[in-house]
Amino acid sequence: MSIDKTSPTPGQDEHVVENPEAAAAAVTVVDPRLLVREQGLTGYVGEFKRKMRAGDLGSIPVVIGLIVIGVVFQSLNSAFLSAENLNNITITMVGTGMISVGIVFVLLLGEIDLSVGSVSGASSAIAAVLAVNQGWPEWAAVLFAVAAGAAIGAAHGFFFAVLGAPAFAVTLAGLLFWLGFMLQTLGANGTINLDSDGLIGSLTTYYFTDIAAAYGLAAVVTAVFFITSFLGNRRREAAGIPSRPLNETILRTALLAVICFAAAFMYNQYKGLPLATVIFLVFLVATDFVLRRTSYGRKVFALGGSVEASRRAGINVTAVRISVFAVSGGFAAMGGLFLASKIASANQSAGTGDLLMNAIAAAVIGGTSLFGGRGRTWNALLGVMVIVSIQYGLQLESIAEPVKYMITAGVLLTTVVIDSITRRTQKTAGRA
Amino acid sequence: MVHVSATPVLALRGVSKRFGAVQALTDVELEVHAGEVVALVGDNGAGKSTLVKTIAGVHPIDEGVIEWDGRAVQINRPHDAQDLGIATVYQDLALCDNIDVVGNLFLGRELRKRGVLDEVEMERRARDLLTTLSIRIPSVRIPIASLSGGQRQTVAIARSMLGEPKLVILDEPTAALGVEQTAQVLDLVERLRERDHAVILISHNMADVKAVADKVAVLRLGRNNGVFEVKSTSQEEIISAITGATDNAVTRRAARTTGEVSK
């Protein structure tokens, strides 16, 4: 019976394609076999079902996962969904999340960067040495550290793209080298304390306490989303190509508004809108824009699809590869600064332990494919939310570190299995 | 009869190409006019691919002259060929599976508006192009992975048309296609001719060649072995030119099977 699902018989076809003549007249190049979505709510449900069957799950597994996590831990401990705990989760996740954004770029190429943990540690050490020991102004130390991270990434990219060494091996060497570099830089003491009121310190401690800040941001985000969608659809209509119906735009905007204002309400219950969250959101929006709306982003996706096709299309494969590793290194450095800010120091354990695995796991859990060419930077946000929520939930239950590792591993494995299975389903449905 | 202009769009005069000790092409002559489909045939190793690559700028020629619109030109890099208006569709299609049809059509030459991809204009032009070429695909916004082999081939050919090339080179466009898809691609080749493009078609399939080509240029062991008008030439004549003799494996097999039937 599974055959019926993928290739409907002619009899069923008539039910799926609502009025094919009208559809063909509306849009110029339409194959009669194309499944045209019906108008209104039934159309939505139909398309949703079809996407599920084709293995086009998108962010749905991870959203369901987040809901399950929320329900389970809340039932175990009512402090889990408190404003304070949620606020702490959203601040803690920025460090790992930033690193994960860089990982998404590398995964889109179908490559891996194992050095991001060490690079984040090395960058925080560089910033601490410059700001505290050398007396640089903190902003200069921060800029230098991020630039250093990007340069380190570009160096990895050079060995991979120009000399042709496997990215896996190059960044594995990087993992060791930059760990050693960090320990060397920190010197005999091993720890450099940062001024908790300084720029780096306030990255995770500053709040916009005025309640208007959080609500204002939510309102601005919603309004900008609606206006850009609305204008985009009007342009499409004017050009005579299929566009989204207005009620769909309104529905999406409403959904976004609910999420934004709920988050704003939650933040205002505690200390206000955290600076860390604002910075993270700005980078997520910016990277998503770069990947999906610029020709640079298109090149990154193209390389993830087919290197040979990209080369023949005149894309400078070497330059794009180096730049992607530079982006990864830069985001690792920024993540390192947030992590250092959280503990107000740069110390020897920075960038070690499960940081690297969590950053990669976050990208994958969020829905970025390990096989290249599929993913968005928002995946990093969703994935890191899952990982940090689990960590905080287990902490509330006073469950020890070893068990945390095992549970996080279970989540990662589940995600990868889901990724592999959906990929297989997508292949049979001709979507991968 | 197809209208053929006096000056060929592309003319090769005495082109030779060596790879180390191998003389891949020797004194090859070839002419292609606007609105003309020239089939390039020959056995494996006859030099078809090498010849195409010299025109596409992948392998610069060692001796001879390449004339473009009647004047001699140098084609040393793929870029030179593209600048002249030569588009090549290789056998492996060079499309990105994960990107949609519009994205693939404009890959490497995206339209931008204030630095941002102009998706609306790209989609509009993609639709126009596909309509003009009567290419039917389910949607221009689905990933290439969702398309059939024939549809992918038509997208690859359509992509070569975006730069309004004067000469389109198709390297075995129907090699891996079914009956229906082959017909679609052949239709597309005919539309290229109607729109006054010059087409070089490499094919092993005599039926395809007979169906769409105006002229057949035969290569054998790196040399010309005759140029035939398709209308006035039988398939057997072309095959004997390809194999180099009237007594060849193909005719012997034909004789044997008819002999068996008559028994």
Automatic annotation (TrEMBL), chain A:
A Pfam entry, by short name: BPD_transp_2
Membrane topology: Multi-pass membrane protein
Chain's role: Part of the binding-protein-dependent transport system for D-xylose. Probably responsible for the translocation of the substrate across the membrane.
Keyword terms, alphabetized: Cell inner membrane, Cell membrane, Membrane, Sugar transport, Transmembrane, Transmembrane helix, Transport
Name of the protein: Xylose transport system permease protein XylH
Regions that span the bilayer: 57-76, 88-109, 116-133, 139-160, 167-186, 206-228, 249-267, 273-291, 319-343, 355-371, 378-396, 402-421
Cleaved signal peptide residues: none
Subcellular location: Cell membrane
GO cellular component, as recorded: plasma membrane
Primary localization class, coarse: membrane
InterPro entries tied to this protein: ABC_transp_permease (IPR001851)
GO molecular function: transmembrane transporter activity
Taxonomic lineage: Bacteria, Bacillati, Actinomycetota, Actinomycetes, Kitasatosporales
